[in-house]
Amino acid sequence: MSEPYTGVLDRIVDGERAVLLLEDGGDDDRATENAAGEEPGDGAEPGRATVVDELVVGVDALPAEGRHEGAVFAVRVDTDGTLLEASYRADAEGERRASARERFDRLSERLPDE
Fold first, then answer.
1. Average pLDDT, stretch 2-28?
2. Measured between alpha carbons, how far is residue 54 from residues 7, 11, 17, 36, 61 in Å?
3. DSSP secondary structure string for all residues of 89-114
4. What is the pLDDT of residues 69-87, one digit of tens each?
5. Can you tell me the distance from the alpha carbon of 85 to that of 78, in angstroms, rounded to the nearest whole number?
6. What topology does CATH give the domain 2-108?
7. Burial of 96 (0-12, 13-18, 19+ CB in 10 A)
8. CB within 8 A of 41, min separation 6: which ones?
9. DSSP 3-state assignment of 68?
10. Minimum mean pLDDT among 14-18, 40-44, 50-54: which range?
11. Which is nearest to 2 in space by CA: 55, 72, 63?
12. Contacting residues for 42 by C-beta, under 8 A, at least 6 apart
């Protein structure tokens, strides 16, 4: 049996190993609980996915177009932790980058003088 996850390429080590952060669920829906199982009002940020595990694989196990930091994949992992499948999701990566940019822009705005 295998488990579906959303995988985000965190980093490539020595040009040979890719570190994927695995988020609960096989699609790009955002989890509403954080890793400790807390509800969003308890410190988790609503609409943010929860990283549930990390997987180190050979770079060549990933599709060539997704071999860069921040790439998003739909992945299936065997119960023993072996990567079975990784499909690059350019659309999900673009949405995440846009969301991060919007969040940064909001945070960088000056507060009104009182």
1. 88
2. 9, 11, 12, 16, 15
3. -HHHHHHHHHHHHHHHHHHHSPPPP-
4. 999 999 999 999 999 999 9
5. 9
6. OB fold (Dihydrolipoamide Acetyltransferase, E2P) (2.40.50)
7. middle
8. none
9. coil
10. 40-44
11. 55
12. 34
What totals of helices (H) and strands (E) does the chain contain, helices first? Answer: 1, 5
Locus of tokens 């050979």 = 58
> Residue 63 contacts by C-beta under 8 Å, 6 or more apart in sequence?
73, 86, 87, 88
Q: Domain locations in the chain?
A: 2-108
Full-model pTM:
0.72
The pLDDT tens digits for 18-44 are: 999 999 865 544 433 333 343 333 344
**Six token digits for residue 85:** 């499948």
Mean pLDDT taken over the chain: 82
DSSP 74-91: EEEEETTS-EEEEEE-HH
Tokens standing for residue 32:
């509403």
